[in-house]
Every structure is written in structure tokens, then in C-alpha cells.
Amino acid sequence: MLPPAALADFTTALSAERVFTDAVTLALYSHDETPRSCLPDAVLFPASHEHVVALMRVALAHHIALVARGAGSGNVGGALPAPGSVVVSFECMNAILEFNPADRYMVVQPGVVTADIELAARAHGLFYPPDPGSSPYCQIGGNLAMNAAGPRAVKYGVTRDYVLGLRAVAGTGAELRTGCRTTKGVTGYDLTRLLVGSEGTLGLITEATLKLLPAPEARATLRVCYATNLDACAAVARVMNQAVVPCALEFMDQRSLLAIQAAGAATGLPDGTEALLMVEADGAASDLPRQIGALKTALQGNGMLELLEADNPADVARLWQARRSLSHAVKRIAPLKINEDVVVPVSRLAELVGYIDRLAERFALPIVSFGHAGNGNLHVNIMVNPADSQQMKNARQALRELFSQVLELGGTLSGEHGIGSEKRDYVSMEINAASLEMMRLIKAKFDPQGLLNPGKLLPL
């Protein structure tokens, strides 16, 4: 339990109605989307930057670990409490502090829901490109922590590419201001890009200045069915080797299609469909036909069974609803979904997909693959029953072999989910000892007591 003196100091720093230690609240904040859980000693709900400064000082005085939390929608245990830690939930810091359409930026607190940023920007003819699948409920603070992405990353990039500056509190208690409000600026080291993706291990972000873009006038979506995974992967390679860059290029294998069909979506596919691509283009309305024509040409080839186009908003929304429902639909296959988000060069995607099929057969495990094919980023879901010890043993071995193959193909262990606690033990497979030591030195400078999100990101 939290020492009485620490509890009293947190209460003084924030007020009693912002400090919770009851069993129900602790249970609610004991887990994220991973199957693990750990009860925190307390949950704090700061409402301002000044609150975060004050609670950091209390944590330093009593040597209390702090775990920052947004909506808890992460897949790698990034917001999972550590034993003896206190959760800092930013859901009450949910204000858009400033919106400057003329200079195309917005200043937000970490608890703002990602979709609300997009909604506010669209009202002024602008948009915020990063679009994680959880955007209707995830919060920008979690996106910043994990450098989240989404389907539009193939054309527009990831969260880090749209952060101009940050306000944060380091693990020393120091108040940081990084970056600027202009789209160009090279003064000093780039602490903004260092903090984004650091998973709350270096500082607690209290404000973010986000870059916005003019909203595209129009968009159109193609749904393309193929006879095999390799046919679909070949089409991906063709698309990414011509001049028109799609704003989204998504892949779904046969198990993915069966899962969403069981949920009532993606019905009416041609017989023999084993893979599906969703391809979207956006831009000026006058230019969209040219883009779609070029994409259609690239998508045609061996194994293509059907190509459908949607350009009105209702039809486009229906197609994307099926894709966005996929992650939850897959959970019906087995009690536990081990959800990975590996990335390989697009030219090696077919090799990865073929390897995954062989891995599933060899270990007798359902493995569902889908994701952002235009970036070479696949969500590889190993479906298991945690009560079956042999299945769990097979899954762990399959996971290690998957990571080895991804690295052999020139890829990386995570494209958007982050490392958290779930992938921490595999990081040394990708990052060499000298680089890891430099990262540990950076961590020690920002957080000398090791209080910020302990047990995450860096291997022991």
C-alpha cells in the first residue's frame, strides 16, 4: 500500500477528489489491452501542468514510481502498472488549449481523444493525419508515448511527424519546453522527437503542439480481392513502385476475412477470395480520377478476382468500418490474442506473409495477419488458449522465430504499438549493446531515480 505520508502529500498536491485508492478504481486502472494486470497503489487525476509538477515532486520525495496512462488501449503493456507504482491518468487534462488555423497548429492536453482533434481541425478545412485504429477512443498522450500511426501513415507519416513541440515534466522534476510553433526550427537537440515514442520513461507530457495540414478535397477507396496472399503482396509491390502514393494500403488475409464475415461485415466476396486489399487515394477532386486510374492499373495482375470502387462518403465509411472492426472480430477465434506489429521493407512483404503461413502450420496455431501493407507493417495475431500449456509454449517459440525472420528480412520489431513490457525482452535482438547503453544513459539523465514507467521499453 501507498505509505500514509506519500498519500497525504499527493492529496495536498492535487486535492482529495483527485487521489483514489479504493479497490474498484485500482482494478479499473490495473491493465491495458494486454492480458496481464497489476494493481497500482493509487490512481491520480491531475488537471493541469502545475498538478503534474507537484505530483512529480511528491514522487521524488517518497521514491514512488509513476505510470502515465491515457485510455489504456495499448497492446504491449505500456500503461501497465508496476508493483508499488501509482498511475497518473491524464483523462481530466482533455482541453484543446489553442487552435491557430492560420498557422496550422493546435495545442492540446494529453487527455484529448484523437478523433476530437481531427473533428476540430476539419471544421476549419484542416486535418490531423495520424489515424490509429483506436482513434475514436484513444487519447493523444498515448499516441505520443508510443508514436502511434494508422492506415494513413503510408502517405502522411506517424505521430512524431506532426508534433512541433511539447511541454513536459522530466523524472528530475524539471519542466521542459521543447520544439517550437513553426514548421522549421533546428535550435538545439531535438528533444521533441526523443520524447515522442519514449513510452513515458523520460517525462510526463502535459501539452503538445500539433501540426495540421489542409484537408483533402476528396477521397476514393478501392476494395480488391485476390486468390492468394502472394497475389495480393505482388499487387502491393506494384502499387508502391509507381508514382501515385495511396493514402492507405491495407492487407487482410483469409483468416481476417473469415473473422469479419462472422461479425457480419465484408460479405459478398467472390468465391476463392483468400486475401483482400483496401486502397485509398485522396487529394484535389480534379486529380482524384487520375490517381485512382493509376492505382487500378497497378492493382491488376495475377489472381485479382474483383475490384470495387467507392467514392461517396457513406460507401467509403462502410468499407472502412469492416477494416476497423477487424481487431475486435479476431478476438472471437481464441481466448488470447498475441498481437504483434512487425515491419519489413515492402519488397520483402511476400516473404514475410509466406513465412507466417508456414509458421502457423508448423506450430498448429491460428495466425491472423492484416495491416498497413503500404508500409510493410503487419499485425500478426497468434491466437491461443492460455489454459493450454502446449499452445502457450508453441506461441512463445513461434513469436521468437517470427521476430528473427523479421530482422533477417531487414525489418523491425514494432511499427506503431511500441515495446512496453511485452516486447522488452526481445529488443536486444534488434538494437546492439552500444546503442542500448547510450539509451540507458539518456534514461538515467532524464529519470535518475528510475521512477517513470519502470520495466518498460529497455531490456534489463
Automatic annotation (TrEMBL):
The keyword Oxidoreductase is annotated on this UniProt entry: yes
The FAD-binding PCMH-type domain, residue ranges: 36-215
Family annotation (PROSITE patterns): FAD_PCMH (PS51387)
GO molecular function (one): oxidoreductase activity
Alphabetized InterPro entries for the sequence: FAD-bd_oxidored_4_C, FAD-bd_PCMH, FAD-bd_PCMH-like_sf, FAD-bd_PCMH_sub2, FAD-linked_Oxase-like_C, FAD-linked_OxidoTrans_Type4, Oxid_FAD_bind_N, Vanillyl_alc_oxidase_C-sub2
Highest taxon of source: Bacteria
Co-factor requirement: FAD
Record's keyword annotation contains Hydrolase: no
Keywords: FAD, Flavoprotein, Oxidoreductase
Pfam families reported for this sequence: FAD-oxidase_C, FAD_binding_4
PANTHER family: GLYCOLATE OXIDASE SUBUNIT GLCD
Similarity remark: Belongs to the FAD-binding oxidoreductase/transferase type 4 family.
Name of the protein in its database record: Glycolate dehydrogenase, subunit GlcD
Protein source organism: Sulfuriferula multivorans
